[in-house]
Amino acid sequence: MINSHPTAAELYQIVRKRLPKISLGTVYRNLELLTQNRTIRKLEIGGSEARFDGVIKPHHHIRCIACGVISDLFDVPQDVVPQQYLSLGDYDVRGYRIEFYGLCPLCKSKQATEEINNT
Ligand SMILES: [Zn+2]
Ligand SMILES: [Zn+2]
User: Fold this and answer.
1) Ligand 1 center–CA 53 separation, angstroms
2) N or C: lower Cβ tally within 10 Å for the chain?
3) Nearest CA among 55, 77, 57, 46 for reference residue 3
4) Is residue 95 within 8 Å of residue 43, measured between CB atoms?
5) For range 31-39, the mean pLDDT
6) Which ligand sits closest to the CA of 106?
């Protein structure tokens, strides 16, 4: 399934339609380069396969627990964890990840219809 946060394998399927001879390794290498250049962002969400994001503006993500789609959240501030908590413990804290999850609008309405049908 293609969304705005595709995996390398999904991007490979798209690129291959235009460049049939391209290898998955080339796609991976280019994605790493674009990530280093900060042209795209690499997302590691919930231990799943890395996804790539063309939106560089800082934002959080929410994952649908039913269909797995990942959407952008622009209204949540980036520094939700106060600075004081980043110097606790023996670690040199470099960052943190916040993962929101729930039901996307599509799955929410699907579930609502199912509930009506079941009663
Ligand atoms: Zn969903
Ligand atoms: Zn995003």
Assistant:
1) 19
2) C
3) 55
4) no
5) 93
6) 1
> Whole-model pTM?
0.74
The confidence band for 47, taking pLDDT boundaries of 50, 70 and 90, is: low
Contact 100, 43 (CB under 8 A): no
Cα of 118 vs centre of ligand 1, distance in Å, is 20
Give the C-alpha separation, 89 to 85, whole Å. 9
- Per-residue confidence (pLDDT) for residue 17, from 0 to 100: 95
Q: How far is the CA of 86 from the centre of ligand 2 (A)?
A: 24
Domains and CATH numbers, the chain: 8-118 (3.30.1490.190)
Give me the mean pLDDT over the 74-89 stretch.
Answer: 82
Residues 6+ apart with CB under 8 A from 34: 40, 52
Distance 17 CA to ligand 1 centre (A): 27
Sign of the alpha-carbon torsion through 56, 57, 60, 65: negative
Ligand 1 centroid to 35 CA: how many Å? 27
Tell me what the pLDDT averaged over the chain comes to: 87
